[in-house]
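COMPLEX REQUEST
Ligand: phosphoenolpyruvate
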Amino acid sequence: MISGIIVSKGIALGKSLLINLENKKIKKEKISKKKINLEIKKFLKSIKKSINQIKKIKKYTEKKLGKSKSEIFEGHIMILKDDELSKDIINLINKRNTAEISTKKVIKKQIKEMKKIKNKYLKNRIIDIKDIGKRIINNILNINIKNLSKINKKVILICKDLTPSETSQINKKNILGFITELGGETSHTSIIAKSLGIPAIVGVKNITKKVKNKDFIILDSINNEIHINPEKKTIISKKKINKKFLKNKKKLEIFKNLKATTLDGKEIKIGANINKINDINIAKKNGAQSIGLYRTEFLYMSKNKLPTEEEQFIIYKKIVEKMKNKEVIIRTLDIGGDKNCKYLNLPKEENPFLGYRAIRIYYKKINIIRTQLRAILRASNFGKLKIMFPMIISLKEIYFLKKEIEKVKKKLKKDNIPFNKNIKIGIMIETPAAALISNDLSKEVDFFSIGSNDLTQYTLAVDRGNDLVSHLYNQMHPSVIKLIKIVVKASHKNGKWTGICGELASNPLATKLLVKIGIDEFSVNSPEIPNIKKIIRESYFKEKK
Ligand code: PEP
Ligand code: MG
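STATUS: Structure written out below.
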């Protein structure tokens, strides 16, 4: 039996599609003299294939984004047609190297030389060269390069790892589920799977070796079972379980539009977490009463340069307008950790989750946060918007961020641009430091939102994305619960409220406990909203007499 770490429950049955295997080890062994010509042919064929692929991408980009955006691909084609490049690679093949190793070596050498020259134009060319090198090698090795949004057959994805930005391209109509070798329960890839409501299992050792393309797969993330080319009777039995699972899900639908009021009368707001504007549709369909967390970094990751103030403003405005009179909490950029943004050129770190992440980046890249705050404030004129800052550990940071908000407000006023002068400001409580000084912090902000995903990893010293320690990752560990209690108490003492937007909020096993602790608002993965509402309606806030 093959199993892993369940991240999103359900059952998917379908053909496998192996993707993103470009990290597959390139063998270094020498080839025999007889094979040299064959290797050269393989290389030349790959160049031709790469050119054709890029021509198609160029055409698509031109149609979607205009001619100027598609020009970069003309550059790619020119590099591929460059005789010098081919000559250098073929020279190495003639020295009995494989086509892929020869390409890798030549590309590496070119990049090294380009890096010596400090020039912005060349820096961008390095990215192009890397991209092209990867494409040539993948084509030599016959590896598919996929844009997940373009998959148009119903498949179960099998891969080593998916990045959060790749996962956010998933179209759930065609991607029935996914299995990865790496990843943990609350990595951002897993969170997206949950919010899409597609079955997923991560941390499955060697799955890319066990499965071949077009194998028939049963991905049962209810029972943590993966079957490859199973017998007919297994398929029939799993289909039955799935039917029951879907029927139960359907039954919960009656709770979608009900209020989450406890048996002793405390009404708790149930919001949704979203990563992109379209997620609002799923949120509304499931009865979200607010957006308790909009992870704006996904907007940044979907682009190849920083989104402008205008681009951001249009999206934030659309989001509040779509939510009509309901509240929307926009969290400012939380890049770093497992969320990377290539064009920001963030340094590679030993411990990215403990390093240069979220608000820590704002100090050196002040215009990023100023632009974002300006866009959020402008959008605040069109609905109930709140600002939330991630990764806080000190009062000093809050002073800095509030000062920035004031500066942006002042400038907007000067420019005669309307905004909500009394916009509410909140912070994520996702570090033990913030939880322990929450009494002081709550005097400075309007609300808290508990980020249990990070709070757990930082409290337990367990990487949230590492399958090797995932058995130690427990959002209901007594230490985490103790910190949450401290935070809720501190906020209430100072007349503020505390929500929770980490995955603990979506865990039905934790709902009654969180209600008892006094959490005022839950922000959950949209598909979980009906179930969480149901459980709250069966809970008591105060002890039953
Ligand atoms: C959290 O840490 O719990 C949280 C909600 O933020 P993210 O998952 O985006 O880090
Ligand atoms: Mg977090």
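REMARKS: The longest strand covers residues 11-19. Residues 390, 430, 451, 453-454 surround magnesium ion (ligand 2) (CB under 6 Å).
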